[in-house]
Amino acid sequence: MNNSFTNAARLTWAGLRALVVLTLVCGVIYPLAVTGVAQGLFPGKANGSEIKSQGKVVGSSLIGQTYNLPKKNPDDAEEAAVADLKWFQPRPSNGLGSNSVNPQYSLILSGATNRSGDNPELIQWVKDAKAAVVKDNSTATYKVKPSDVPADAVTSSGSGLDPDISPQYAKLQIHRVAEKNHLTVAQVAKLVTDHTDNRTLGFIGEPRVNVLELNIALKELAKG
Question: Fewest C-beta atoms under 10 Å: which of 78, 107, 114, 207?
Answer without folding.
Answer: 78
